[in-house]
Amino acid sequence: MMDIRTTLQQAARDLNASGSPSPRLDAEVLLMRCLGMDRLQFLMQPERELSQEEAAGFARWVERRSLGEPVAYIIGTKEFWSLRFEVGREVLIPRPETECLIEEVLRFYRSPGEDLRVLDIGTGSGAIGVVLARELPAARVAVTDVSPGAIAVARRNALAHGVAGRMEFVQGDLFEGISGDWDIVCSNPPYIPEGVYNLLPTGIRDFEPRGALIAGPDGLDFHRRIIREGGHRLKTGGRIFLEIGEGQRDRVATIFREEGHCDDISFRKDYGGIDRVASARKKVR
Ligand code: SAH
Questions:
Q1: What's the CA-to-centroid distance between 126 and ligand 1, angstroms?
Q2: Does ligand 1 come within 6 angstroms of the Cβ of 94?
Q3: Nearest residue CA, atom 1 of ligand 1?
Q4: Do 72 and 93 form a contact (C-beta atoms < 8 A)?
Q5: Which of 33, 65, 94, 276 is most exposed by smallest CB count within 10 Å?
Q6: Ligand 1 atom with the shortest distance to the CA of 129
Q7: Is 92's C-beta closer than 6 angstroms to any atom of ligand 1?
Q8: pLDDT at 273 exceeding the cut of 80
Q9: CB of 204 closer than 6 angstroms to any ligand 1 atom
Q10: Which residues, at least 6 apart from 25, have a Cβ–Cβ distance to it below 8 Å?
Q11: Using a 6 Å cutoff on CB, does residue 129 contact ligand 1?
């Protein structure tokens, strides 16, 4: 029998040997979840012994991690905007950079009483749509995804966070099945150029859905379509918010200008200093 402290030390060593960049943290998160304990309980009881079942379950999780599987898929959840989101292999794991998109939306729309219509395209786990529904308590939020599995996960996350009653879940290709006009159209669509796919870390390439990542030769296929179509779907004065990848800023600005529906084009950097969010306003004619 082994206690928490020894189990952690051993797992961290194994994960380090298998190449994890964060072996100690991985081991802690996996063991906490395996034992159903929070961080405080965990720290207070370093000598608590693991049962045989617990030890076996944990060993299987460490094995999966050592084969490169992201911790979020192993434990089935990921924190985003300080909320716990269910994730599974059918959805992208929400990234901290995407919180910048939320912040940018809230910079323009922070009054909670505003009766807004919000559309989140390619919602995946529902991260963006669910957080905006919570932050804008009078808003109605529709989320779309081409993946039925993603729509199911997004719906469960909306239920878990108490906002499903103000949300609508649509499976389809971008704006397919969506009608009416919108105050806010936002999206973190796929934006990795095809040719770069093979260079991605194995944890991403081997585990996250390809259809959540790849977007044509220059990574901007979805941005082009969303900016073009979004121009017709926005209310006058409404805003579009798109997450972008490193080096895509100038081309996205050009797409906005060429499509011509929007002005007030602006960009926001993430905390790593990379232009991460593009936004623009539907022109008042
Ligand atoms: N918005 C989520 C997920 C981003 S991954 C987040 O920020 O975490 C991109 C998502 O776009 C995936 O869920 C993928 O299934 C979806 N997607 C890809 N092509 C699509 C299309 N043609 N129409 C709608 N959604 C699409």
A1: 10
A2: yes
A3: 123
A4: yes
A5: 33
A6: 1
A7: yes
A8: yes
A9: no
A10: none
A11: no
Tokens encoding 83: 């909320």
Nearest to 163 by CA among 123, 135, 121, 124: 135
> With a 6 A CB cut-off, is 122 part of the ligand 1 pocket?
yes
Alpha carbon distances (Å) from 77 to 8, 35, 148, 172, 275: 21, 15, 19, 25, 27
* Range with lowest mean pLDDT among 80-84, 121-125, 195-199: 195-199
Percent of the chain residues topping a pLDDT of 90? 94
Residues 23 and 9: their CA atoms lie apart, in Å, by: 10
3-class DSSP state of 142: strand
Sequence-ordered list of residues with C-beta below 8 angstroms from that of 22, at least 6 positions apart, any chain:
none
Mean pLDDT of the region 219-231 = 97
- Tell me which residue of 52, 67, 61, 54 sits closest to 20, measured CA to CA: 67
Task: Express each pLDDT in 78-104 by its tens digit.
Answer: 999 999 999 999 999 999 999 999 999
Whether residue 23 has its Cβ less than 6 Å from ligand 1? no
Q: Rounded to an integer, what distance in angstroms lies between the CA atom of residue 226 and that of residue 232?
A: 10
User: What pLDDT, on a 0 to 100 scale, did the predictor assign at position 42?
Assistant: 86
For residue 149, report the distance from its CA to the centre of ligand 1, in Å: 11
The 3-class SS string of 165-184 reads: HHEEEEECCCCCCCCCCEEE
Give residue 111 CA to ligand 1 midpoint distance, Å: 28
* Residue 281 CA, ligand 1 centroid: distance in Å: 22
Is the pTM value of this prediction over 0.90?
Answer: yes
